[in-house]
Amino acid sequence: MDNILVVDDERNIRTLCSRVLAGDQIEVHGVGSGKEGLQTADEVSPDLVLLDLRLPDMDGIEVLRALKARHAETAVIIITGFGQIQSAVEAMKAGATDYLEKPFEHLDKLKLAVARALEEVRARREIQRLHRLQEKEYRVDQLIGDSEVTRRLRDLIGKLARSEAATILIHGESGTGKELVARGLHYESARRDFPFMEVNCAAITETLFESELFGHEKGAFTDAKAAKKGLMELADRGTLFLDEVSEMSLNSQAKFLRVLQERVLRRVGGTRDIKVDLRIIAATNRPLEMRVKDGQFREDLFYRLNVIPILIPPLRERRDDIMPLARHFVLDANTRFHKSIKGFTPEAERLMANYQWPGNVREVRNLIERLVILGSSDSIEPQHLPVQFAAQARQPVVTESSGDEPRTLAEVERAYIGQIMQRVESNKSKAAKILGISRQTLRKKLMEE
Ligand SMILES: Nc1ncnc2c1ncn2[C@@H]1O[C@H](COP(=O)(O)OP(=O)(O)OP(=O)(O)O)[C@@H](O)[C@H]1O
Ligand SMILES: [Mg+2]
Q1: Model pLDDT for residues 239-279, shown as the tens digit of each residue
Q2: Distance (Å, rounded) from C-alpha 372 to C-alpha 344?
Q3: Which of 50, 61, 163, 341 is most open to solvent, judged by the fewest CB atoms within 10 Å of its CB?
Q4: Ligand 2 (ion): which residues have CB within 5 A?
Q5: How far is the CA of 153 from the centre of ligand 1 (A)?
Q6: Is 91 exposed, middle or buried (0-12, 13-18, 19+ CB in 10 A)?
Q7: Do residues 248 and 205 touch, judged by C-beta distance below 8 A?
Q8: What's the CA gap between 202 and 248, in Å, rounded?
Q9: Half-sphere exposure of 390 toward its Cβ, with a 13 Å CA cutoff?
C-alpha cells in the first residue's frame, strides 16, 4: 500500500486529490499547513508528498528541505499556483521530483505524475535494498578461511580499505578469490556508497577499450549517435577494478597510464579534461613481472599499479582453508537448493585436504554445489568425490598394509582407477589397457563420479 500526503491549505484541492488518487493500493492523507505536514510525514512516512509551495505558516521550499532531510526516499511533487514557475524551478533544485500547476484541469496529468513518482520511489528502494544485500555479501567476513594467510588477508583488507586512494595490485591463480578481495576492499571503504565498476581487460578489444573506459562525445565515430560516459566517469568517487590487467594491449596501457598519472581523462572525440576520483584495483593471474620482462607490459605502468601488492596463495598452499570453505559452501548450497547435507565423513575430509585443487576456491565451490544437488545421503562420502581425489591422497589407497577402515569394493575400484589415471596423465586408452577393460567401460566408470 502506498502512502500519499497532500499538504495544501485549500480544502478542495485536498478533497480532489483524495477522490482521484485514493484506492485499494493508495492511502491519502491531507493537511492544511507546513507544520502539520512535517508532523504527519513523521507519523506515516509517506511514499509521496504533494506539496503546495504557498502555505499559511511556512515557506514551501523550507518544508521541502525539511522533508527531504528527514525522509530522503520520499518523492515530492510541487503544486504551484499560476505564475509561480520560478519557485517551482527552485523546488526542483531542492530535490522535488516534478511539479503540477493549479488548478488541475487535466486530472490525467495528476494521476500520471503521481504514478510516475511512486514508480521512482519503488525503484529507488529496490536499488537501495540490492545495494545493502551486495554490501553484506562482500563484507570482509565473507572471506572464509582459518589459515594464517587468510586471517592476515582479512586484517590487511580492513587496513587498506581505510587508506583511501592507494592503488592495489592483486596477484593470484585463477579462482583464488581476487575479485572477492577487490569487492571487499571497496565495500569496507568509505567509497562503498559509490560504484564498483569492473573491466575485464582480456574481454575488451583494443578499439573498444578507450571508449568503454573514457566514454565518447557525440559524433566521435560513426556509431557515436550520442555522448556517453565511460566506466571511469561512472565510477567517480568509487572503485575501478581492472581484471586480467596483464592482457591490456600496449596501446591501451599507454592511454591508461596517462589517466592514472594525471587523474583526468578525455572522452574520445572530446576536448574537455574531466577530473575523476577513483581507487584503482587491478588483478592478474599471470606473473606481471614476466610480462614486463617480455616487453608485453609497460614497466612504468606496472610500478604505478603495484603500489600495494596483495598476494593470494593457491589453496594447496593454505590447506587449513579447505574444510572451512567446504563447510561454508555446504551450508550455502543447502539453503539455496533446499537440502540438508550434514557434512563430510572423516575419510572424505582426508581426501579433500590432500587434493591439489588446481581450480582453487572456485573448484571447491563448484564441487560442493554439485555434491549437494546430487546428494541423497546425510554426509558426503569418499565415493561421492571425483576419482582424482583418491589418486592424490598421500597414502596409497590400495595396499595390503593400509590400516584404514575396511572399504567397499566400489571404493577400492574408484581409488585404483584414480591412481592409474594419474599415472598415465589421464590418457584413457593407456589407462584402459592397464586396467584390462575397454575404453567405453572406463569412460562409464569415470562418469559415475
Ligand atoms: N576466501 C573465500 N571465502 C569465500 N569464498 C571465496 C573465497 N575465495 C574465493 N571465493 C569464491 O570463489 C569463487 C572464485 O573467486 P573469485 O571470482 O574472486 O576468483 P578470481 O581470483 O577472481 O578468479 P579468476 O582469476 O578466475 O577471475 C567466487 O565464487 C568467490 O566468491
Ligand atoms: Mg576474477
Answers
A1: 999 999 999 999 999 999 999 999 999 999 988 899 999 99
A2: 11
A3: 163
A4: 179
A5: 14
A6: buried
A7: no
A8: 7
A9: 24
By C-alpha distance, which of 154, 150, 123 is closest to 138? 154
C-alpha cell at 97: 521530483
Q: Output the residue whose Cα is nearest ligand 1's atom 27.
A: 174
> Which of 66, 86, 85, 84 is CA-nearest to residue 76?
66
Domains and CATH numbers, the chain: 2-130 (3.40.50.2300), 139-313 (3.40.50.300), 319-447 (1.10.8.60)
Q: Which residue has the cell 595490485?
A: 169
In this prediction, residue 401 has a pLDDT band, given cuts at 50, 70 and 90, of very low
Q: How far is CA 242 from the centre of its chain?
A: 14
Atom of ligand 1 nearest to the CA of 170: 21
- Does ligand 1 lie within 6 Å of residue 371's CB atom? no
Structural contact between residues 278 and 235, judged by C-beta atoms closer than 8 angstroms: yes
Helix 107-138 and helix 11-21, axial crossing angle in degrees, nearest 10: 70
The CA 365 to ligand 1 mean position distance, Å, reads 9
* Candidate of 139, 362, 367, 368 to mutate for ligand 1, largest count of ligand atoms within 8 Å of Cβ: 362
CA of 313 to the centre of ligand 1 (A): 12
d(CA 444, CA 421): 14
- CB of 284 shorter than 6 A to ligand 1: no
Cell numbers describing residue 371: 555434491
Q: Position of cell 568509505?
A: 190
The residues, any chain, with a CB within 8 Å of residue 243's CB and separated by 6 or more, are: 178, 179, 198, 199, 200, 201, 202, 282, 283
pLDDT in tens, 104-158: 888 888 999 999 999 888 888 877 777 777 766 667 678 999 999 999 999 998 8
Shortest-distance ligand to the CA of residue 145 = 1
Residue with cell 524551478: 89
* Adjacent-strand bridge partners of 77: 50, 98
Which distant-in-sequence residues (6+ apart) come within 8 Å of 191 by Cβ? 237, 238, 239, 279
Give yes or no for a cis peptide into 103 (omega within 30° of 0): yes
**Measured between alpha carbons, how far is 393 from 281 in angstroms, rounded to an integer?**
38
Ligand 1 touching residue 365 (CB < 6 A): yes
Q: If you measure from the C-alpha of residue 448 to the centroid of ligand 1, how many angstroms do you get, rounded to a whole number?
A: 28
CB 13 less than 6 A from any atom of ligand 1: no
In three-state secondary structure terms, 198 is strand
d(CA 235, CA 86): 34
Compute and round to an integer the Cα radius of gyration of the chain.
31
